[in-house]
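Async update (no meeting this week)

Hi team, since we skipped the sync, here's where things stand on the single-chain job. The sequence we agreed to prioritize is pasted below, unchanged from the tracker. I ran it this morning and attached the output directly underneath so nobody has to dig for it. Comments welcome in thread, and please keep replies under the output.
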Amino acid sequence: REALEKRGLKVVIASTVKHGALGTEGIKVDPDLLITEADPENYAGVVMIGGHGASQFWHDVKAHEIIRTYNRAGKIIAAIDRAPVTLGVAGVLKDKKVTGHISVFEKLINYGAQYTGKKVERDDNILTGEGANACSAFAEELARAFA
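Output:
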């Protein structure tokens, strides 16, 4: 978030809970809105954050609808770590070069993606990051994508 805000980008956080979203490292964030309230017309793109909790969105119909809407509009769709699986389930990774956590590479391939294993991969409007060690590079590429 900070890396994007430092570059003058506005970051809006959506989640399945309105208060106290908890990350893997124990960091609590109060989201700005619920994912069900997120209107793709109002935002330049969507970023799905990884970690163990990312799997809750793998079968989240609303998240898939949002991702497909952004994809149809050619807007940036980004995901890091285990979160690219959500993009795969939503059907937007077919024939796209992607990366993600090594634990999900087979899932990504099963959704038609071309898994590269790089730290960061961008293919058209799809941006993916490998995991925690790629956070800085992922943020840099996100900033360029949204600039």
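Quick observations from my side:
Strands lie at 14-15, 21-22, 28-29, 33-34, 45-48, 76-80, 97-98, 114-115, 120-123, 126-129.
The domain at 2-146 is CATH 3.40.50.880 (Rossmann fold).
Reply here if anything looks off.
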